[in-house]
Amino acid sequence: MAYRSMRRPRNAKMSERAAPKQVFIGTYGCQMNVYDSERMRDVLAPLGYAMVGEPDNADLVILNTCHIREKATEKVYSEIGRLRAHKDRRAGEGKGMTIAIAGCVAQAEGEEIMRRAPEVDLVVGPQAYHKLPELIARAARKSGERLAANFSAQEKFDALPARAPDGVTAFLSIQEGCDKFCTFCVVPYTRGAEFSRPFAGVLAEARALADRGVREITLLGQNVNAYHGAGGLGFADLLERLARIEGIARLRYMTSHPAEMSDDLIALHGAEPKLMPYLHLPVQSGSDRILKAMNRKHDGAYYRDVVARLRAVRSDIALSTDFIVGFPGESEKDYGDSEQLAREVGFASAFSFKYSPRPGTPAALMRGQIDEAVKNERLARLQAVLGEQQRSFNDGQIGRILPVLVAGRGRAPGQKHGRSPYLQAVHFESGAVRNGEIVPVRIIGASQNSLTGSTAALEVA
Ligand code: SAH
Ligand code: SF4
Ligand code: F3S
């Protein structure tokens, strides 16, 4: 997975501050990391750090890492190797480069990183980003201190500064950690126990985002629908409150666990128009035997039932999912059950992965580990099915008029880009429409990953 770099926040007034320093933040992994990287940028802006798109000449480089599969972790070490060359070159020019490793690899292997990679100045776990200024100052004094997990998630949320969103859509992290312990997964070890932020903090952050022009909020959590507030209030209650905020036109959430799709949450999908008709609901496998070995706490019939109940209240809801192929003990029949489930449900989009044994997880020690060649072959077959489903879902939009949230300029002059209710990117010809407006767009073309169209009003004129 290539890293994503970020733009500067609109309200960072660098000119008013001390001599600008350059920070590069490379983000790997899931949306939680994307959110955390934005928050790190917000913490660093008052110190005079301006975001840059390349690490080569940065004063500070932060790699916000992912531990989920072996490849993701390997990437961190190879990226550190690349940074070493830049650090050496800058040292030759009499300039410094502070290298910080953040995120889930920092949390899981912080000590090993410090041992294996002396060019790394500091390691910081996901709960400690509000301590970054202090850590950077200490690293500058060469005390080379490591700091990782020893803070609570609440402390982090309380200490972080106000948000500086740079668009009309924003992530809002409401829940961290996971207690589900799927046997293949490192997240319960890297992100710790499940923690839900109190209602008040979430609502205040959402209102502040709305005040700064955000129209669409995606609530984030590793198990976002396991969110619980005080006094028995649950995730559906939170969504209802958020829907009442003026200015917020669209709500989404990810990632949800099928076992946490409560009756009131499903009902809300039928009752709350601000809740978008798109849901990422990872299933992992279609085989009950494998789902049990994965400790997923649901079987295939339960998953199908959740989908049927969602479609009963919101017939156009589009579903996305995650599959793992080649879990230990997966037979050809088990694999076939995954393909069958995909064909029955019909996903608008999906991610599929080869099982990757992770240190410290139960599945890594299970008998029946699957050959790489078999994993490759099953992945290719499943991806062919899922790719076809995604194409046909997008093709199915041609001729429809979709309400599109305008997010920015398009690829060509006079073009805009935006988001459909089903989370598709839409590039369209338009007249004078402003970012943040929701406009009717007639869809005229579709590809695997995006739609094209033109504003319906223009067509009539
Ligand atoms: N909290 C979410 C997602 C967690 S990680 C959930 O419960 O669904 C995102 C995806 O990575 C998972 O859904 C799973 O499909 C995949 N994944 C996690 N661990 C993996 C492993 N060891 N090997 C391969 N894929 C893995
Ligand atoms: Fe990992 Fe399972 Fe928790 Fe998702 S629910 S984060 S897959 S342990
Ligand atoms: Fe990766 Fe950590 Fe997210 S392991 S998937 S960055 S929670």
Descriptive notes:
By secondary structure, the protein is of the alpha/beta class. Among the domains are: 4-150, Methylthiotransferase, N-terminal domain (Rossmann fold), CATH 3.40.50; 401-459, Nucleic acid-binding proteins (OB fold (Dihydrolipoamide Acetyltransferase, E2P)). Helix content is 36%, strand content 20%. It has 14 helices and 18 strands. The protein has a 5-stranded parallel sheet, with helices on both faces. It has a 5-stranded mixed β-barrel with strand order 14-15-16-18-17. The protein is globular, with a radius of gyration of 23 Å. The structure holds S-adenosyl-L-homocysteine (SAH), iron/sulfur cluster and FE3-S4 cluster. Iron/sulfur cluster binds at residues 178, 180-182, 185, 187-188, 222-223, 257. S-adenosyl-L-homocysteine is lined by residues 68-69, 184-185, 187, 222-223, 255, 257, 282, 284, 322, 324, 353, 355-356, 358.
Secondary structure: number of strands: 18
Distance between the termini: 44 Å
**Content of β-strand:** 15-25%
Instruction: Specify the helix fraction band.
Output: 25-40%
Secondary structure category:
alpha/beta
In CATH, the topology of one domain is named Rossmann fold
Name the CATH architecture of one domain.
Answer: 3-Layer(aba) Sandwich
- Describe the strand arrangement of the main beta sheet, using strand numbers: 2-1-3-4-5
Low-confidence stretches: 10-17, 143-149
Counting DSSP H or I runs of 4 or more residues, the number of helices is 14
Give the oligomeric state of the chains in this entry, treating copies of one chain as homo and distinct chains as hetero. single chain
